[in-house]
From TrEMBL:
Record's protein name: T9SS type A sorting domain-containing protein
Signal peptide (UniProt feature, chain positions): 1-19
Pfam families: PorZ_N_b_propeller
PorZ N-terminal beta-propeller domain span: 48-201
Native organism: Chryseobacterium edaphi
Keyword Signal: yes
Keyword Nucleus found: no
InterPro entries reported in the protein's UniProt record: PorZ_N, WD40/YVTN_repeat-like_dom_sf
SUPFAM superfamilies, alphabetized: Calcium-dependent phosphotriesterase, NHL repeat
This protein's UniProt keywords: Signal
Length: 753
């Protein structure tokens, strides 16, 4: 039986200590663990490194634990990994040149590799090889030695000749000597005082070599030939390979990962067998009597073709998300490049992912398809949740809207139909995003619509004819359009490639002839093209643009009155300043407490008070598990308070404090409780409150020490009394009533100073 546990590291007992502690129990990842880059053995167990995290598979129990930026690592986009089972130390290298040192005592973040003067190339860590307490790190300029005990870099050898730097593809340490494979040959040097001087390195064998490893012997490879090195002699194996992806040397065998098969040799070069799992692999190693393979698309596999991995999406690419039917998810993977809905050149053609509520499903329709997919939105039909519509926004055959049906027996999607949307050619009527009205009628926003490529439009799905009918916003100039939001009988739609915002009114009739369009523009106070829109409990429209944030109060009532949009003005050092001025607002989401999550391109995510005048949280990739500072979508599950952050580098979640806020109390919870000052110095959170909650906190004698009114479904008490000083140790009672006193709740807080 296979079990999945979310743990705090490679070892169950690991404690995270780092100068930059960016994770907490509130965070979790929804990363893909399919693309396994490195596989290491740990006394009969398997450690696998993937693009965005590491997982640890215990062969005897089937237990899987995972480690990512959500619970300990400091980056995503892993490029290299090695692990020493004797010392229990792992070293993770990232594409940006940073390192994480994983030890039983914690994880240490090493911000950057040493850079040679004049080197302007990539900082990507190409390869890591650990030997004892040292690791050799291969990068674009050569190699560096990393001291695992001191957690710092030692000597570096810059492979530079005539001002030209040469990369170390991979390197290893054997018998106090470094072996490095480069595009010009196998190069070696003893770990001594002249190690940094490139002219003192020896070229053992000229050639283009890409892979190397060592334990009992040194083995290295070109794309077609693998060698065993022994006392200055390099002997080629007789096998001619198609394309060697990796060479792994264990105590008594050499495992070679080729394009199609995994080959095993004894350390003397004797062939010992081969295996295949019918798909491409990055790497493989032997654990006990079995070969374990790191596949590109299926996670870790044993040689008998059984897959082991944490569940997650097929790839990490993600653009927009839909939550429906409680906890089911649809994730689209299209992209916006240079502010346009482009991105047709993703070679993996990711399509969309579906989470059933218990497991992730990837449609086989996308695997190996020759159609170019740029899926900007995917949505389930409310009348039949097994049917999914998705947009394919491209300029090649296969554009249009697709309908697919989920088959629960096969756990796959069956293709139903493609709708070309009456397009004269692939450049016209490009579908972007969907919205349903309150009668479950489906509408899709269209860019480059009609016969005029500068016109936006909509496609209405006519269920009777099983076809889409077109409605063009004639006279309105904009090549771009975003996902519409249906609110108060209208479709509110950002137009990113003009200084406009479009409101589409269908008059709630089946006829398209009486539909009308209203445009908010520069004269209404719109600073630039619009990107996102959301509505709060006051029916105010929050509009995100390329140049900041604008509010339309009482939007549905005012839209036809030529209204003026309002910025949010805050004071910074007694100086009035417009919130998010000149910033690209990518997405806005309102939680159950009417507070706002706002994504800023390159600036992370802000969590704002209901009015927007106070910042509650500001999450960035530097201070949180966010994979990037560009978050393309935010979704809040208002029943649970869970917040989903969607990025091109993967999805992470944050457990918020606001969930299912109504006029009455929910499940009132106080945490932390007890509050021990030596362990916690922050505010105590009381969650599960009513929309408006009157709070009185008393001591055991009945004296009121604090009172407040909460309007967001939760409240944070700083443990100060009404005089502003910290309360004494003891038990405190929280007495709460809702707005009309028809519901009440109580709680106790223990304070230990």
């Amino acid at each position: 039986m296979k079990k999945l546990l979310i743990s705090l590291g490679i070892l169950a007992s690991v404690q995270f200590v780092s100068a930059q502690n960016i994770s907490s129990k509130k965070w979790a990842d929804l990363f893909s663990y399919n693309n396994v880059l490195a596989v290491k053995e740990d006394n009969g167990k398997v450690v696998a490194a993937t693009e965005n995290g590491i997982f640890y598979y215990t062969v005897s129990t089937g237990e899987i634990t995972k480690l990512s930026k959500a619970n300990g690592l400091h980056e995503v986009k892993i490029a290299a990994f090695d692990y020493n089972p004797q010392t229990k130390i792992g070293l993770v290298g990232y594409q940006n040149g940073a390192l994480d040192v994983i030890t039983p005592q914690g994880i240490t973040y090493v911000v950057d590799i040493p850079i040679a003067v004049g080197y302007n190339g990539s900082k990507k860590i190409n390869h890591i090889s650990i030997s004892g307490d040292k690791a050799v790190v291969s990068v674009g300029y050569g190699v560096s030695i990393f001291d695992l005990k001191k957690k710092e870099f030692g000597d570096s050898a810059f492979f530079v000749s005539g001002g030209v730097y040469q990369a170390s593809n991979e390197a290893t340490i054997k018998d106090n000597k470094v072996f490095s494979v480069t595009n010009t040959g196998l190069k070696t040097h003893a770990l001594n005082t002249t190690f940094p001087v490139f002219s003192t390195w020896t070229t053992e064998l000229p050639g283009n070599f890409t892979q190397i490893d060592s334990e009992t012997v040194v083995s290295f490879a070109s794309p077609t030939t693998t060698y065993i090195y022994n006392n200055g002699t390099s002997t080629a194996l007789s096998q001619v390979f198609g394309n060697v992806n990796d060479v792994v040397v264990n105590a008594d065998n050499i495992v070679i990962t080729d394009a199609a098969r995994i080959y095993s040799y004894n350390t003397n070069g004797t062939f010992a067998g081969s295996v295949t799992v019918g798909e491409a692999c990055n790497t493989a190693t032997k654990v006990g009597s079995k070969i374990y393979l790191g596949t590109i698309l299926s996670g870790l596999k044993s040689e008998d073709n059984i897959a082991y991995k944490p569940d997650g999406p097929y790839f990490n690419y993600a653009y927009k998300m839909r939550i429906f039917n409680e906890n089911q998810l649809l994730v689209s993977t299209g992209s916006r490049v240079n502010n346009f809905n482009e991105g047709f050149n993703n070679p993996k053609n990711p399509g969309f992912y579906y989470f059933t509520g218990t497991e992730w499903v990837y449609p086989s329709y996308f695997v190996g398809s020759s159609t170019i997919f740029n899926v900007l939105d995917a949505v389930a039909d409310p009348n039949n949740l097994s049917e999914v519509f998705f947009t394919n926004y491209n300029t090649a055959p296969g554009f249009g809207v697709y309908k697919m049906k989920y088959n629960s027996s096969s756990k796959d999607f069956d293709f139903v139909k493609r709708y070309e949307l009456d397009a004269a050619n692939p450049y016209m009527n490009r579908p972007v995003g969907f919205a349903y009205d309150d009668q479950n009628n489906l509408f899709a926003s269209l860019a480059f619509a009609g016969t005029d490529s500068a016109t936006p439009g909509f496609a209405y799905y006519d269920r009777a004819s099983d076809n889409f009918l077109m409605k063009y916003a004639l006279g309105i100039i904009s090549n771009g359009i975003q996902q519409p939001i249906y609110h108060d009988n209208k479709f509110w739609t950002p137009l990113p490639r003009s200084i406009d915002f479009l409101v589409y009114d269908t008059k709630k009739t089946q006829s398209l002839s009486d539909d009308t369009f209203t445009v908010l523009s520069e004269s209404n106070g719109l600073p630039s093209g619009s990107l996102a829109v959301a509505f709060d409990k006051s029916n105010d429209a929050w509009i995100g643009t390329y140049g900041g944030l604008r509010i339309l109060p009482n939007a549905a009532a005012e839209i036809n009155n030529d209204p003026q949009l309002e910025p949010i003005v805050i004071e910074q050092g007694n100086i009035p300043e417009e919130l998010f001025r000149d910033s690209q607002v990518l997405q806005i989401e309102v939680d159950a407490g009417d507070q706002k999550w706002v994504s800023i391109d390159g600036g992370g995510v802000y969590y704002l008070s209901a009015t927007g005048e106070r910042t509650i949280q500001h999450f960035t990739k530097e201070n949180s598990p966010l994979p990037t500072n560009t978050v393309t979508d935010i979704k809040v599950d208002k029943k649970t308070g869970k917040v989903y952050f969607v990025t091109y580098d993967g999805i992470v979640t944050y457990q918020g404090d606001v969930a299912d806020v109504t006029s009455n109390f929910g499940n009132v919870l106080v945490y932390p409780n007890p509050v021990v000052y030596a362990q916690f110095k922050g505010k105590v959170t009381i969650k599960g409150l009513a929309e408006k909650t009157n709070i009185r906190i008393t001591d055991v004698a009945g004296n009121i020490v604090h009172s407040a009114v909460a309007r967001t479904g939760y409240y944070e008490w700083d443990l100060n009394n009404q005089k502003g000083t910290r309360v004494a140790s003891g038990i405190y009672f929280v007495l709460m009533t809702n707005e009309d006193a028809s519901d009440k709740a109580t709680a106790k807080i223990a304070v230990v100073n």
